[in-house]
């Protein structure tokens, strides 16, 4: 480690850590990524992250964990432009509602699609995943502006883009595709805009590495806490 006052403890394939990586880059924060093995939790890591979760952010010697909490902390600790949350209280509440929706209604279904082994269960999971994506897409601003709330990239976009970037994993292992009937055209505009964002590009791992990494999920042999929760249909840690 370099001794920088801001450190993000994460691992290269973690979509939750990618959220906070993007937020830090958006804010222009001088920080260090500390590659952390979530399967071999050292006593040093558990001292800053009692639950042993990645990502964990350390700022001026104090630690914050949970990606949504970290990203709101980043917005408040570095209040400079660009703003990642709307200024209006109602709009900020709406942003939190949609971040919560992503966490509860979309992300779990991503893992159910990937980990389900029977064709029938895979189809059910795909249908639920697409249902969540439809609701998310219908809530977006008009197609004249690229991001969820319009022209400004923010925490709602950051909450979902890591999983949109992993659609190719579902394509590879589960023959997943978005329907071509026009209902997801707005989502595709959003995805193209987010993928080309300067804060997003450096966080994207090579496709082949990601495919290999997620094979354990596709085989349903992964031992991560997320995988275990998916198997049990339990809330995510």
Automatic annotation (TrEMBL):
Cited Pfam families: GST_C_2, GST_N_2
Residues of the GST N-terminal domain: 4-82
SUPFAM superfamilies named among the record's database cross-references: GST C-terminal domain-like, Thioredoxin-like
Enzyme Commission number: 1.20.4.2, 1.8.5.1, 2.5.1.18
Catalytic activity: RX + glutathione = an S-substituted glutathione + a halide anion + H(+); methylarsonate + 2 glutathione + H(+) = methylarsonous acid + glutathione disulfide + H2O; L-dehydroascorbate + 2 glutathione = glutathione disulfide + L-ascorbate
GO biological process: glutathione metabolic process
InterPro entries: Glutathione-S-Trfase_C-like, Glutathione-S-Trfase_C_sf, Glutathione_S-Trfase, Glutathione_S-Trfase_N, GST_C_Tau, GST_omega, GST_Omega/HSP26, Omega/Tau-like
Protein name: Glutathione S-transferase omega
Gene Ontology CC terms: cytoplasm
The keyword Chaperone appears for this protein: no
Any one GO molecular-function label of the UniProt entry: methylarsonate reductase activity
Entry keywords, A to Z: Oxidoreductase, Transferase
Family: Belongs to the GST superfamily. Omega family.
Domain GST C-terminal residue range list: 88-236
The protein's role, per its UniProt record: Exhibits glutathione-dependent thiol transferase activity. Has high dehydroascorbate reductase activity and may contribute to the recycling of ascorbic acid. Participates in the biotransformation of inorganic arsenic and reduces monomethylarsonic acid (MMA).
């Amino acid at each position: 480690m370099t001794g920088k006052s801001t450190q993000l403890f994460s691992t290269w394939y973690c979509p939750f850590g990618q959220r906070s990586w993007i937020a830090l880059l958006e804010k222009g924060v001088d920080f260090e990524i500390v590659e952390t093995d979530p399967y071999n939790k050292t006593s040093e890591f558990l001292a800053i992250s009692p639950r042993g979760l990645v990502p964990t952010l350390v700022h001026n010697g104090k630690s914050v964990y949970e990606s949504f909490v970290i990203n709101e902390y980043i917005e408040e600790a570095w209040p400079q432009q660009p703003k990642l949350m709307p200024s209006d209280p109602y709009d900020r509440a709406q942003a939190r509602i949609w971040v919560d929706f992503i966490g509860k209604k979309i992300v779990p279904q991503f893992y159910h699609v990937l980990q389900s082994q029977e064709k029938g269960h895979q189809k059910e999971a795909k249908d639920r995943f697409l249902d969540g994506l439809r609701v998310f897409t219908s809530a977006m601003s008009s197609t004249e502006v690229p991001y969820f709330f319009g022209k400004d990239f923010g925490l709602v976009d950051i909450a979902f883009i890591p999983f949109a970037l992993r659609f190719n994993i579902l394509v590879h292992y589960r023959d997943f595709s978005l329907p071509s009937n026009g209902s997801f055209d707005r989502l595709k505009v959003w995805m193209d805009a987010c993928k080309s964002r300067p804060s997003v590009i450096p966080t994207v791992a090579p496709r082949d590495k990601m495919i290999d990494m997620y094979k354990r999920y596709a085989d349903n042999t992964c031992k991560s806490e997320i995988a275990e929760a998916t198997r049990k249909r339990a809330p995510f840690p």
